[in-house]
Amino acid sequence: MSSKRYLVLENGKTFEGVAFGADGESISEIVFTTSMTAYLETLTDPSYKGQAVVQTFPLIGNYGIITPDKEGEGPSVSGYIVRTACDEPSNFRCEETLDKYLKDNNIPGIKGIDTRALTRVLRQSGTMNGMICDDPSHADLEAIKNYVIKNPVDEVSTPEEKVYEAEGEKVAVVALMDYGVKYNIIRSLTKRGCEVHLMPARTTAERIRELAPDGLFLSNGPGDPADNTFEIETLKALREDNLPTMGICLGHQLLALSHDFKTRKLKYGHRGANHPVRNEVTKRIYISSQNHGYEVVGESVDKDVAVELFVNVNDGTNEGLKYLKENAFSVQFHPEACGGPKDTEFLFDEFMKMMGR
Fold first, then answer.
1. Local structure of 290: helix, strand or coil
2. How many beta carbons lie within 10 A of that of residue 302, not counting itself?
3. Is 249 one of the catalytic residues?
4. Which of 71, 295, 319, 336 is catalytic?
5. In this structure, which CATH number among 3.40.50.880, 1.10.3290.10, 3.40.50.300, 3.20.20.70 belongs to the domain 152-354?
6. CATH-assigned architecture of domain 4-145
7. Which of 8, 209, 221, 309 would bridge 139 by S-S if both were Cys, CB 3.0 to 4.6 A apart?
8. Is 338 a catalytic residue?
9. Parallel, antiparallel, or unpaired: how do β-strands 14-21 and 108-111 relate?
10. What confidence tens digit (pLDDT) does each residue in 68-81 have?
11. Which stretches of the chain drop beneath a pLDDT of 70?
């Protein structure tokens, strides 16, 4: 017989469901994603560190777990919330069920709740903290409300430098700053002939200069970008080197902060695979995959330093910047996203051109 499990939000609202995944309780920031597929990529995306993810699509786990599709070494989420979890997946690549994967990795889940109602609460009230538990009387609303994700970049970044060889002929050396990198960023570079040096988030500017790379890449990652003061100061120091630079997601935000632009938290963030963005040069619309809770404040951008490269069609928020006096650009969305869309994958080719390759 399935046991009950509860999600208690910081405002006291409680959702009753059924336990799946690992035993235990967890307090985390509750966020939702509208992606219909790529749930393993969501579970293993380091940008979700310290968060419990609500899947708005009602059936999750129907093709099982396929470990080559992971975007990180293991799950980064603190909890997982779905309407229906498939217990009998069907796919020739399937290795195990979602439930077993969560159990093996000590991630508590809750299924059988009205995820539409929960998502509506998060959209109306904004992202809030919550607790997954087997007994709602255990929920301390003050402790839930005060929960903060502390130093998530340090937790997900590589502890030491790693080198990924180029596929085929090596045409460039790239220093990839690991703020919580997704594996497909590495694959997107190596398949274009880049030897990728994965660098810890707290790598100094001096170490980057010793490496003498052809280009600098700034990865995605979790948490409030303004908390990463060491990383921001490193990027400030590297500006004088004028390395060809591309940033994604947190990398986009940190590059902006290194130019004294501002960031702020969005009401409920952008998470999903269906976000339209407009290129402000060509006016062409692209569908993008996104996962972020903060934005670069468009009004804070010094127009003599950078111009908006992309904007979000839905709410007008900034989605990319092109720096006018530096060989650098960055985007808020994920051009490397798996399982897609790949509309903006060409941006990696633009980065290659910046390096003269």
1. strand
2. 11
3. yes
4. 336
5. 3.40.50.880
6. 3-Layer(bba) Sandwich (3.50)
7. 8
8. no
9. antiparallel
10. 999 999 999 999 99
11. 1
Gap between the Cα atoms of 338 and 281, Å rounded:
26
Q: Which of 29, 41, 334, 338 is catalytic?
A: 334
Query: Where exactly does CATH 3.50.30.20 map onto the chain?
Result: 4-145
Question: Rounded to whole angstroms, how far apart are CA atoms 246 and 241?
Answer: 14
Q: What is the pLDDT of residues 296-342, one digit of tens each?
A: 999 999 999 999 999 999 999 999 999 999 999 999 999 999 888 99
Q: Are 73 and 43 in contact (CB under 8 A)?
A: no
pTM attached to this predicted model:
0.97
* Integer Cα distance of 335 and 192 in angstroms: 15
In residues, how long is the chain?
A: 357
The yes-or-no answer on residue 71 being catalytic is no
Catalytic residue among 29, 41, 133, 249: 249
* DSSP for 158-214, written as a single string: -SS-EEEPPSSS--EEEEEEESS--HHHHHHHHTTTEEEEEEETT--HHHHHHH--S
